[in-house]
Amino acid sequence: MTKMHLSAALLSGFLTLAPALAQEANSPPPTRDEVRALREKIDALEQQLKTLEGRLAADPGTNAKTQRIDELDQKVRVLERNHELEQEALETRAKELPRFSAGEKGFSLSSADTNFVVQLKGVLQVDSRSFFGDSGTAGNDSILLRRARPILQGTVFKDIDFLFVPDFGGSGAPQIFDAYLNYRWRPELQLQAGKFKTPVGLEQLQADRDLFFNERSLATDLVPNRDVGFMLHGDLFGETLSYAAGIFNGVGDGRNSSNVSVQDNKEFAGRLFAQPFQPSSVRALQGLGFGLSGSYEAAQGANATDLPSNNGFATVGQQTFFAYSPTNRSVVAEGVHWRLSPQASYFYGPFHLLGEYVISDQGVSLAGAGPARSASLNNTAWQIAGGWVLTGEKSSFSGVTPRQPFDPRRGHWGAWQVVARYSELNVDPAAFNAFADPLASAGSAAEWSVGLNWYLNANLRLSTSFAHTDFEGGGIRSGALGAVTRKDENVLFTRLQLAF
Fold this sequence. Notes:
Elements: H1 3-25, H2 32-58, H3 60-96, E1 99-103, E2 106-110, E3 117-131, E4 142-156, E5 160-167, E6 175-186, E7 189-197, E8 226-236, E9 241-248, E10 267-274, H4 283-286, E11 288-303, E12 312-314, E13 320-323, E14 330-348, E15 351-367, E16 374-389, E17 415-426, E18 444-455, E19 460-472, H5 480-485, E20 489-499
Antiparallel strand pairs: 1-2, 2-3, 3-4, 3-20, 4-5, 5-6, 6-7, 7-8, 8-9, 9-10, 10-11, 11-14, 12-13, 14-15, 15-16, 16-17, 17-18, 18-19, 19-20
Helix pairs in contact: 1-2
């Protein structure tokens, strides 16, 4: 008999007894005989219950069904446990698989523990330059591929970073701009080796994709660009002080290394930059930074490649306004060449301000037949630049990221920034007559620029700026150099940039 039959029997007995109980509840107190009869009925029901329980216990079908239920329950538990084990195995396997990601910061493939990472990034800049009042070979209007750089970077064995950046833009042949390894033993102590930017100057160390103007200021004419060497660097005291100190082949002002040294003497370069108020609770002081950088090289043999890029200095329109080019002899770098650059930056919300001063003391001599002439030329330059993000986003040394990327259907227009700059470069007067032609080269140049940057999103940017440069000296002798310095330079820049 099943539990259902037992319940039915109990219900039947209760229904039999219930009328009597209800009737006696409304009657006078029962007699002794009536109580005895009632007890007999209860005893009979209890006896029936015991009989039913005995039959239920003796029924072999009930035990089989109970056993079957127990078996099914055990199988369900086993299945549930197997499912849990499968889920754990899948989660473990997922943790061991490589990870791929794609987004505004580029494309990345890494091992599960992130000890091995490869990232693909890039910078593409399409520029235009429109000169006003240009003549002859000076200031020709152009549309150019300013930079086209695929960027491969990553990490191997957790602590060793690498970067490889070729450049297919510009007017020259493709070349390697960056190629180095960096061992991160700790944030405070890292060793970098290969080709990279020499740690001199402020604006020069800003990434090309993050520049606030199409071209760097005149101050950057006096600092080196990229060179091959070894450098110790790191961040100290909670990143409030950064340092860099290295030994390099040595290159001229504004020049990139040719990857091969042509002299035994090497250049020493270093930089200290402090942001002492970065951990402060005063937000207005957190973005204040200042520092000092410099380099020193003592060249024993005459070397033309240690002179500035293109043998002289260029305007923001990339026109040479000064060159070491006397009429009948060539100039080479020889002797001590040292640089010194105090610098400062300030970022507060949408506002930024950058400033630096550069001294480049260059030893030069005359090559070829004729009387020996040598000099130590002290050239100087400085610049100050500022900007304001009109849409309120935060300005930083690494650019601006709009809060609302460009989407006109939703009324989002990206971020807008206005910028302004003044810079000046002065050539040592001792450079003229013996080492430069005063009738062609200018002794100084002063530039001011204003611009508007439109950050459509984190990767796409449209920029336009206007620069005016005036000169002192030069402009008399015919030729390309004289044509540049004969009148002021006025140029309108535009740039469409994709960077990720």
